[in-house]
Amino acid sequence: MTTCKQRVTLTAIIICLFSYGITAQQYQTDTIQEKSDFQWPEGIKMGLSLTFDDARFSQIDKGIPLLDQFGVKATFYISPDNMLKKVNAWKEAVNNGHEIGNHTLVHPCSGNFEWSRHKALEDYTLQKMTAELDSASKFIEYHLGVHPVSFAYTCGQTFVGRGNNTESYVPVVAALFESGRGWLDEAPNDPVYCDMARLTGIELDGKSFDEIIPLIESAKNKGHWLILAGHEMDEGGNQTSLLSTIEAICIYASDPANGIWIDTVHSIAAYIKDKREEVQFVILPVD
Q1: How far apart are CA 173 and CA 132, in angstroms?
Q2: Which domain holds residue 77?
């Protein structure tokens, strides 16, 4: 005979299973993304931006000449020390239409990276980060003659401080830049929904074209904006976007039949903001 206690327990189990079924069904429904309602230019099905960090020497020596062969413009989030060592080449890159973005002055990351212990984000404040970002922008403007409107979070990390004093510096980026790009993210950006201060950046380093083409096709089918992020631009090595992959992307994206708008982060971000009827980013004059 079933006791009252057993009946209560059985009822509780049924309710839990029923609730789990609803949750699982809801999750499954939510993960099925339909095509974005965003209206790209005529004949365009998606946006694609190639971005590279740190002003690595291979970007100047090998990567940018390759991009220039195809007339493809990319966004480069520079590190000041590396940039200064090839400053004239970076000026030429600007003249050729490539975008220069802010990537901080000293590239602070979590102190869990031993190389960043002396510049750990855990030891930063919002005020210190604001000052650093502003200084980095002024540095770029002084040496290259352009004021950066795009930013890339160092190591993809968006916080300062530790514990109860941890704060996001995304609002700082939102105030100072048109966009902020992440790193090692998992999905492209839906232009209807994406937060310009927290754009997703998907790793390009080490990937073959066969590994990248499914990302492009998925973004195209959904009408999304895919931002690929890399570092070195060479034949191989650590943190390296392969030249063969970059060339294949340029060839594929440059074919009008594929419906891809490949351009800098700024160009596509400005278009999206206009279509969303948002106020365009303006660089405020400094006294």
Answers
A1: 11
A2: 44-275
Number of structural domains found in the chain = 1
Which pair of structure tokens corresponds to residue 214?
Answer: 């499914």
Q: Does 50 fall in a domain? A: yes
Please indicate, yes or no, if residue 28 is contained in any of the structural domains: no
Distance CA 46, CA 219 (A): 7
The pTM (predicted TM-score) of the whole model is: 0.88
pLDDT band per the 50, 70, 90 thresholds, residue 3 = low
Low-confidence winner among 22-31, 176-185, 224-233, 237-246 (lowest mean pLDDT): 22-31
Asked if residue 191 is part of any domain, the answer here is yes
For residues 195 and 211, the answer to whether their CB atoms sit within 8 Å is no
Q: Rounded to an integer, what distance in angstroms lies between the CA atom of residue 285 and that of residue 282?
A: 9
Residue 50 is inside which H or E element, if any? Answer: strand 46-53
CATH number at residue 63: 3.20.20.370
Phi, psi of 229 (to 5 degrees): -125, 135
Mutual angle of helices 243-254 and 209-222, in 10-degree steps: 30
Smallest CA-to-CA distance from 185 within 172, 167, 198 is with: 198
Q: Is 184 left (phi over 0), alpha (psi -120 to 50) or beta?
A: left
User: Is 122 contained in some domain?
Assistant: yes
Which stretches of 32-125 are DSSP H helices?
A: 57-58, 64-70, 80-85, 87-95
> For the chain, how far is it from start to end, CA to CA, in angstroms?
85
Cα Rg, the chain, nearest whole Å: 22
Helices (H), 177-223: 209-222
